[in-house]
Amino acid sequence: MQLINEKYFQLKKIDDKNIHSIQNKINSKTKPLGSLGKLETLATKLALILGSEKIPEIKPTLLIFAADHGISGNGVSIAPPEVTQQMVFNFLQGGAAINCFCRVSNIPLQVINAGINSPINHPQILNQPSGNGTQDFTKSEAMTEAQLNHALLAGIEITNSKVNEGNNVIGFGEMGIGNTSSAAAIMAAVLKTPADECVGRGTGIDDTTFNRKLKLIEIALQRHQSQMNSPFDILRCVGGFEIAQMVGAMLQTAQQHKVILVDGFISTAAALVASQINSHVIDFMVFCHESEEQGHKRMLNYLGSKSLLNLNMRLGEGTGAALAVPLIFAAKEFYNNMASFSEAQVENVVIK
Question: Three-class SS of residue 63?
């Protein structure tokens, strides 16, 4: 098996030699300067990644990586571990919020078993488990080096598959009871921030459960402190299989020069680790919404990014990424087809 390390992902800073022509093209549209706000920033990013003369046809897809977490056996969520599998069935049957949002915008949806406790046989699921749930990271490392390597390779492979199918915008979502605990631990380890500034309410836990969750994450961070010397170590010690597969997939999406749609707290934790492996991956990322989870805004600030949307959501599943897709289409459409002042024969307008 090929071993994955930093040298595998040879990402370079995005080529911005056309940035001035892109900006001039946007500024010359029949509107006041900057009046389309974040859509102008989004159009600039799409043009830099996909093509500056004309943004090509947008072909989105959304990936949901599902996995179980050993820490969930300690009661850190409102739901027991078996809900991961039950929700995966819900995705496959088309009954979840993410299914509704994908249907609205005609986004193909791929559900991926990255490591749930029990296998699922269904024609629409992609089974590439890195294990049957991680270990309880308060007691041992979440996964072995071999499992981490498998997860990163599996993420790379699914990206290559989707790009080969013609997709150029890839959204990332997840499902896994206990994964806000993993994401919070990752955030604390990367940002070197106290756990109480990272741990949130997740699915809406009460004070007793929150205090238990916080204490367990503090125990885990203390236990693994001396081992977490690289982003790969952090994933291995406190990560989840779905998070690790997202890391590999995000890095490969950037390597393929496609657009990464980052969902909420857990997906941003994956983006955070990916950025620690190669910082240039951020150039290819669109952060879709700001989660209500406590640590999300702080992660976004650390990454120097702002979200497109703030809808007070905290669901996950890729719902924020799916809701951002219409904005991707809108940014592409105005960039390509909105008239310039000269084309529209609009004169005597002072552009400031």
Answer: strand
